[in-house]
Amino acid sequence: MLDAYTDLLERRGERAATLDAVARAAGVSKGGLLYHFATKHALEAGLLARLDTLVTADLAAMRTAPEGPVEHFLRSSASDDTPFDRTLRAVARLSQSSDAARQALADVNTRWLAQIRDAVGDDDLARTILLISDGIYYGSALLREQGDPTAGPGAREIDAAVRVIRRLAGNEGDGADGSRGSLAARAD
Amino acid sequence: MLDAYTDLLERRGERAATLDAVARAAGVSKGGLLYHFATKHALEAGLLARLDTLVTADLAAMRTAPEGPVEHFLRSSASDDTPFDRTLRAVARLSQSSDAARQALADVNTRWLAQIRDAVGDDDLARTILLISDGIYYGSALLREQGDPTAGPGAREIDAAVRVIRRLAGNEGDGADGSRGSLAARAD
DNA sequence: GTCTATAGATGGATAGAC
DNA sequence: GTCTATCCATCTATAGAC
After folding, report:
1. Which of A55, A56, A62, A157 has the most crowded CB, counting CB atoms within 10 A?
2. Residue range A148-157: average pLDDT?
3. Rounded distance, CA B88 to CA B141, Å?
């Protein structure tokens, strides 16, 4: 049922994610849905709880990614096939009218920033990487159409950003060869 | 009436922007509102038409900004007091469930990219700047709460991004002194 | 042009059978 | 646990007075 709710939020927006539509998509009746989630607010709370679990797992995956945490982070910003990204996009849509969802997104950002700063050792660069990720993410979350996954930022934008950050990371000083400076730091 | 519609979309989301609420906020009755905009769809179309007018003016302002087009562009990404930015945020909210609004946002991005690329002369950097701007913009659009303008990215994030881009621009080659390379190009 | 009144559809939620 | 039936509020839109 949370899957159906996520899918509707992501693909058709908050307004279309009615109890009726969620129940139909989940293959149950409205009454059946309301047995598990007594109110619409409870359904939302269930989604936010799931997000919290998934973000913890994502941070752990970032730390051990072979391409390094930053590149893994940016490339996964537009991924559309993991439960985590789908949940995040759904919550972003909810955040329009829900303070709790907005707070949940802010918390995710805070946790990401801490880990990226830890990886690159540069507060300015970490915040900029977060912004680039937000650009990729929100663009892909909001501009993506139902049937057109090519809308919004795609591989082209992400590759451009990765190259730009590599230039910076390569010029930082501690690195050396220019192809992988602090970008890939702590990836080993 | 478009002002009232914009304000409701921006502050309380698509779902709260009902004909009733818009009419009340505009100080007219529902019937009065529907005299000028026969359907809700017509109201939306009116907002998109206004956006088109405002983006044209914004591109012109970018070209003549004293701090250069890129810095002007990034700093204005989180501005909350211009009619253009308020309209853009409102349309971003509509884009959840409206194909026309989504297309309008994509068009704005296309026009921005062309102008930024023209200013920095580097496609990768231009696309990255767009992503940073989207990060600032969507963050400020979506995380901003009714009474808390400090949520989402603020001056701190923007300053960080400007410094990072300056580093890049200063390292580009054609510039020289490092404090203003292609960043401020064509600003004179 | 702007209003009130109301129609018709749909939203969230409850009651009670099975 | 899941269903159908139903209540009540609200939404878009129409009709018609002023």
Report:
1. A157
2. 66
3. 9
